[in-house]
Structure formats: C-alpha cells, structure tokens
Amino acid sequence: MKFIAPQVYGNSFTCPHCGAISKQNWWHIAWDGHDYGNHDKNKLKVGKCQHCEKNTLWVIDKMMYPETGSAPFPNSEMPKPVRDIYLEAASIQAKSPRGAAALLRLAIQILCKELGEQGKNINTDIGNLVKKGLPQIVQQSLDIVRVTGNDAVYPGQIDTDSQDVVDNLFNLLNVVVEYMIALPNKVSGIYSLLPLDKTDAIKKRDN
C-alpha cells in the first residue's frame, strides 16, 4: 500500500485517521487569535481530511494530533503484541525519535519470538532465522532496526535523533511483517484453493 507521509500544508497525504491518501483542507491562526494570512506568525495549523473529515493539529511544522506522527499504518498482519509497541513508538516519534527507535528494536525482539525464536537475544534470533532460510532482504531489514534501535539506547554512529532515520525503521518493520507473515498467509490461502489432485501431484513431485 502506497504511503505519503503527512506534512504541514500538504496538498494530500495518507490520513493518520483513516489511512486514505486524501486531499487536505487547511486553516491557521496565531497564538493571539488572529489570522495573519501566510505570515509565519500563524503557528497553529489544522488540516481536514476530505475523505473522513477528521482533523490533524500542527504546531509550527509538528503534528501534535493524532499522536501517530508520520509513521505509516502498521501492516494489517502484524501480531498484536508487536502492533501495540509499533503504535506506542509512533505516538512519541515526533517528540523523541530516539525513544521511538528503541521501542522499534523491542518490537523486532517480540516479532522474532512470534516467529518461533526465543526472543531473548535479537542477534541470535536473526541468525537462527537465517539458518531456516530467511531471505536476505528481510535479514537486512531486521538488522537495520536492531542496530539502529540499539544505538538509540547506547549511542553509536547512527543519528537516531533524525526523523528520517526513524521513519525508515517503521517502513522496515512493515517490510519484515509483509515478507514473513502477510505473504505466506496470502500464498497459503490461494494454494489451499487448488484441486486436491493437483496438490497431491505436487507433493509426489517434491518427495
């Protein structure tokens, strides 16, 4: 699903309320209650989604409501324990990108457990998943979130205060869920619709 990050005065973007890419209507006002046109004095901005008619509230260029920041919607197949942490990270990313990165590392740890690993040491879990045939692109995505989230707790060379860096972590977590959970579920569902004689023939071939 295409995602366009919300931005102040954006003509259209992915609405954090309904998830639709929709045109936005805007109005603004200054702290003293006056509207100064396009002047920088207008610090308070409100966007209204034309699809769901719900509002986003911005102070200068930061979205303060709803508290999902610019993170994309979590993959619909994301396990609930992982989704809960994902949404918690999204709620603080504008105020604390470093804190969001650390939470996403925790989300990866829990996701590894959901995929059948111990969930105690992320590096070991990823290594075990690689031995089980984990695609390289998924392994790299997992390691990016792991290393970046770790540097958020123990500062290293990665700028975890960067909003762009943290935005990418949300995207990568969705990529992992898509490859490891959503796609297998989709293929399995379609495969189950094949005639029994066809699936029997495939099993005989593979044996």
SS content category: alpha+beta
Q: What is the 3D shape? A: flat
Largest sheet: 5 strands, antiparallel
Give the distance, in angstroms, between the N- and C-terminal Cα atoms: 37 Å
Number of strands: 5
Strand content: 5-15%
Helix and strand run: EEEEEHHHHHH
Q: Residue-averaged pLDDT, rounded?
A: 85
**What would you report as the Rg, rounded to the nearest angstrom?**
21 Å
Helix content: 40-55%
Number of helices: 6
Neighbour order of strands in the largest sheet? 1-2-3-4-5
Task: State the low-pLDDT regions, or none.
Answer: none
What does this structure look like?
The chain is an alpha+beta fold. The chain has helices at 80-92, 97-114, 122-131, 136-153, 163-191, 196-206; strands at residues 12-14, 21-29, 44-49, 55-59, 62-65. It has a 5-stranded antiparallel β-sheet, with no helix packed on it.
